[in-house]
């Protein structure tokens, strides 16, 4: 208490220091705090480190490796951590509180900002999503686009905001507003589809709902990192730029302007942060200027002229992970055959591989980047400052932006969460029900010959790819022999190939052909069904698939974008109706896919199902 003002004495000097005064603006408080910081403390603010868990990679963790995180805070001034910890809400809140307690002991008491990839979807892939723990699960972003319902999107964003803040997470590495123009691209399931107008509208809604207003992030909001600026999804030949073989994007100036439209809409809601793309946009010209042949975070045309210039973005530019790391033998050629790929040797320093690490930091900051993702060691950035490659005034500018975001979030006043409140607020039964409803409604009816009525209680069903317990919960009888069934229910996913198994992400991502091979187990199971048995087929579309073989065999053909068995049965029993329309076109053949342009939306020849299709629209 100072003069009747209640405050947190973060520097423990017994007086109300200006940066502790909640009555001042975030800019005023940040300016005061920057003046009190050492260079090491400033540089620490510019790094988002990976929050180590207390278990080896791939094994269940019960919390963070607190000693390791404490060392990074104490020795390097790092207070931003990317969390992959998936726990029930109360346990996640306790784990985050434990780290905040260590941060409180720091010289200036700067709180931790916990970041996360999306956590509220059915699927989770390392580097793109985190398992939901106890949170409700909703359709993936293409499903939100399939619904194209502003109220549902708002409800989703508000649920994410409520859940994350209740458990101590305040920075979301999203939304991903890349336009889904290259169907082979492995990250289509994170996009809002390829309908430019639809994606733009939903992008603005998501940013506003997550942050709590259209004027910037509120104290109860989650700071957004809109990504990936821009053209990332136009990966040449469908490859992803997490690895060197996928470092190029292929799009022309007109196509690039369409990729910018969802970002323009997101900017209307004033996102706190933007993440640049990994890709090198080959031969791209923007506003008459050739784009530098480097990853977007190193491009003066994209960062300085376009993002800071045309769009006047003054928030934090946060790099994607590993852009300053050295690209050695593993980065260039993958792991030796027979060796399990890991994060070792990861780099995304495309176009600047021959620079030193300090030079990479300097170039990125020179064009506008403020903060660097996945960096655990501040030494190269400090070296760049000491060598005169980066002026300390530029460091101060970046730190001010970062701290303004932290002050806006209210973390200097309230860094801790109440674990019991997290139980009451996060992952509620109501939220879980709303998520399942959205999953069901986002499904798209592609074919229906009218022979399959709604499933009545006791209907005998043969299932493939369906959990038997979910079927029983739907009051239908599961039979082992399809000859005894009244209907077959089959769940498949879009086909894929593993073409780069020697690379960490290549070993996990779905690449290559979108066509079902003849020896596909699901296709073979479908062909072995007895003649005359009606077949309900639901296909999970993490990428646009070529569904011609299923079209002929299905009585009812559905597409989903991340839906549980419970969601499917809610449609099949009539509790919910599939009302979605396709957020991207489904091509007719791989020849059509290979002939289209990676950067142009909905441009394949005679698609089997066009963009926006739903069965009611067929003539």
What is this structure, in a nutshell?
With 619 residues, this protein is an alpha/beta fold. Helix content is 33%, strand content 11%.
Describe the overall structure.
With about 625 residues, this protein is an alpha/beta fold. The protein has three domains: about 1-35, no CATH class; about 35-125 and about 160-330 and about 345-410, Glycoside hydrolase, family 3, N-terminal domain (TIM Barrel); about 430-615, Glycoside hydrolase family 3 C-terminal domain (Rossmann fold, 3-Layer(aba) Sandwich). It contains 20 helices and 18 strands. The protein has helices spanning about 25-35, 40-45, 65-75, 90-105, 140-145, 150-165, 195-210, 255-265, 300-310, 330-335, 355-365, 380-385, 390-410, 420-425, 430-440, 470-475, 520-525, 550-555, 565-570, 590-595; strands at about 45-50, 80, 115, 170, 225-230, 250, 275, 280, 285, 290, 315-320, 370-375, 445-450, 460-465, 475-480, 485-495, 535-540, 555-560. The strands form four sheets. It has an eight-stranded parallel beta barrel, surrounded by four helices. Strands 13-18-17-16-14-15 form a six-stranded mixed β-sheet, sandwiched between helices. The chain has a two-stranded parallel ribbon with strand order 6-8. Helix 7 links the parallel strand 4 (about 170) and strand 5 (about 225-230). The termini are far apart. The mean pLDDT is about 95.
